[in-house]
Amino acid sequence: MVSQKRTKSSSIDLRFIDLFAGIGGIRMAFESAGGECVFSSEWDSSAQKTYHANFGEIPHGDITKISAKEIPKFNILVAGFPCQPFSSIGKRQGFNHPTQGTLFYDIVRILKFHKPDMFLLENVQGIRNHNGGNTYKIIKSSLKKLGYEVFDEILNASDYGVPQDRKRIYFVGFSKKLGTSNDINFKFPNPNKEKVYIGKFVENNVNDRSISKHLQQKYMFKVDDGRPQIIGPDSKITVKTLTASYHKIQRLTGTFVKDGPTGLRLLTTDECKAIMGFPKNFKVPVSRTQMYRQFGNSVAVPVVKKVAEAMVNKYKELI
């Protein structure tokens, strides 16, 4: 069996595994809610480096090559899984076939083998309409066939104390062995009453991330259409979704700071941490390009923390 360093345990049994772990955003949220991570998996070596710097362990690699029986016992599965085309939809019969060849299939096989009490899956909101809605239907039906009550909701990070508009879909599942549908009846957390804006996190006099005047004139502001989004210390707004390709300076979807020698620069590491809800002391031992990719691929931690707390509270009611 694969062994891995464990964190401090909680008063109730909340052992979880962290799949498609990235840099550990979901892990942070569940540890905050009292969980104990007993296994993690992430294939990207750069993300593994950041994960190790913050959690003291290197995640196991490609989950498709890890047998379910090698994974330690757990009762919560969490995963921010990639969305791939479900190319076999409508062409085959049987339980496994609709997801075979996708990374979601690995979630299915691990759930089927271990039968944990709960799970949380996170993905882009567009998965609801992917392939005419068939991908979403197969995800839900596959999870239900495994014996789970399944709930899903699209939540915006800006409603949960994050200065970023970032809509993601969250699938929460509770094993039917915990109770009836009426007993479980999970509710997603309510939005915060007050918004958090980006201005309070913007740094001043940053000199190393400047965007050249030439690039600004010839590309970024070639059309006077209010794009890209420009922010400063006085900005009372939530920024656009931070993407993994932020370093490519996209004029339509990017957010940049009015600062520095050329008057415009990219976000700093601490600004990215704030935008994703990571603490300032989170370690980032990788290149700037990898930093943008890793935060852009991660989760907004405060949102997941709220969902994790709601899951744990419901679990306490059921056990």
TrEMBL record:
SUPFAM superfamilies listed in its UniProt record: S-adenosyl-L-methionine-dependent methyltransferases
InterPro entries: C5-MTase (IPR050750), C5_DNA_meth_AS (IPR018117), C5_MeTfrase (IPR001525), C5_meth_CS (IPR031303), SAM-dependent_MTases_sf (IPR029063)
Active site (catalytic residues): C83
EC number: 2.1.1.37
Keywords of the record: Methyltransferase, Restriction system, S-adenosyl-L-methionine, Transferase
BP-aspect Gene Ontology terms: DNA restriction-modification system; methylation
CDD domains: Cyt_C5_DNA_methylase (cd00315)
Signal sequence annotation: none
Highest taxon, organism lineage: Bacteria
Catalytic activity from the UniProt record: a 2'-deoxycytidine in DNA + S-adenosyl-L-methionine = a 5-methyl-2'-deoxycytidine in DNA + S-adenosyl-L-homocysteine + H(+)
GO molecular function, one term: DNA (cytosine-5-)-methyltransferase activity
Family per similarity comment: Belongs to the class I-like SAM-binding methyltransferase superfamily. C5-methyltransferase family.
Protein name: Cytosine-specific methyltransferase
Protein species of origin: Candidatus Yanofskybacteria bacterium RIFCSPLOWO2_01_FULL_43_22
